[in-house]
Design goal:
Blueprint lengths: L2 H14 L11 H28 L5 H14 L5 H10 L6 H33 L11 H25 L3 E4 L4 E4 L9 H34 L7 H41 L4 H32 L1 H13 L5 H13 L11
Antiparallel strand pairs: 1-2
């Protein structure tokens, strides 16, 4: 029997004797995968933010929403090493303030990602399905004010959660461990139970319902686009890919995390002595947390398929860093041949 299995059996024995379950460290591979996922997310979102700020000179309402989504994805990266250490040790060694800061930033990150993804869904729906109607979501000034208001709301919400969920000391069979944002914080069981269902409804069920409605209407509208024209085929293909990516993000990244967390808080509240089940739910939650991190890697695809300005700026950026693919060469060759400039030599600036 391995050490981990022995410890978990010991936890079950303690539970049968009336003691609470002890927190246990996860396999180190989870911490390594977490760092790799968020490192890739940092590179992709960092590059996206650079494209938005330095390469796109004219922003529209869609660009503003995409920039804020990239920003909400990037802010979690500095705390990733701390969470990786916590995964491996299951002992929070960084103090109470850093724990509350972690909770606040996590709240801003996940809530912000969900909100801005939902707003992008609504914006796409309004611009494609109701392209002839006037809408506030199409006005750049309104979207700027809306995003500023959302960031203020997210920061206040994060501070509230950080204050409501402080670090606690939990006893194990050997020693005491500091716990931060974990199912094993016995004194916070009721708080986690209430907060979880608030999160589950407002940051999962409601946004998912809105997004499914918007994209189902969008898909129906796209089915009527004339695909005989090159432009119509291009718009349809990009929009369908964007629909698929957004629904994958909700279904793969956010839904499992919310479902597993909900099961965990219910078991902790009503069956607190089911140690083996709680430990497995803890592992499942950390796996779902890593899946949620994949959201940071998938969001840049939304910018690519959802904004022609981003695509153009992306291609210009490739030239700046010295990269040019065969597709781009073919497009430039055809363009120059049509204007009669057949003797131009292509170089990468």
């Amino acid at each position: 029997m391995s050490t981990s299995e022995s410890v978990r059996v010991g936890n079950s024995s303690n539970a049968s004797q009336g003691n609470t379950c002890s927190p246990e460290p996860e396999h180190v591979s989870l911490a390594v995968i977490l760092c790799l996922v968020y490192l890739l997310g940092l590179l992709l979102n960092g590059f996206s933010l650079w494209v938005f700020t330095c390469r796109i000179h004219k922003w529209n309402s869609g660009t503003i929403l995409q920039f804020n989504l990239a920003l909400s994805d990037a802010i979690i990266t500095p705390l990733t090493p701390l969470m990786a250490v916590y995964f491996a040790m299951d002992d929070w060694i960084f103090g109470g303030f850093i724990c509350q800061l972690k909770i606040a930033v996590l709240s801003v990150h996940f809530s912000g990602s969900v909100i801005f993804l939902t707003l992008i869904s609504i914006h796409r729906y309004m611009t494609v399905v109701h392209f002839r109607r006037s809408s506030l979501m199409k006005r750049k000034t309104f979207v700027k004010k809306l995003c500023a208001g959302i960031w203020c709301f997210l920061i206040i919400l994060g501070i509230i959660y950080g204050c409501l969920l402080p670090v606690t000391t939990e006893k194990t069979s050997v020693t005491e461990k500091m716990q931060c944002l974990t199912i094993h914080q016995t004194t916070l069981t009721d708080a986690y139970f209430i907060i979880n269902f608030v999160f589950f409804f407002f940051w999962c069920i409601l946004p998912l319902t809105i997004s499914v409605f918007c994209y189902s209407r969008l898909a129906s509208s796209l089915s009527r686009i004339n695909i005989n024209s090159v432009q119509g085929q291009s718009v349809k293909n990009k929009s369908l890919k964007m629909i698929g990516i957004c629904l994958v993000i909700f279904g793969l990244c956010f839904l499992p995390l919310n479902v597993v967390r909900t099961i965990g808080v219910v078991v902790k509240k009503y069956h607190p002595k089911e140690c083996m089940l709680l430990l497995r739910l803890q592992t499942a939650y950390y796996v779902c947390y890593i899946l949620a991190g994949i959201n940071c890697c998938l969001d840049p695809l939304i910018y690519f398929f959802g904004s022609s300005n981003f695509i153009k700026a992306f291609r210009r950026s490739l030239r700046v860093i010295g990269v040019k693919n065969n597709v781009e060469n073919k497009i430039e060759s055809e363009t120059l041949s049509q204007t009669g400039n057949k003797n131009v030599i292509f170089t990468v600036s």
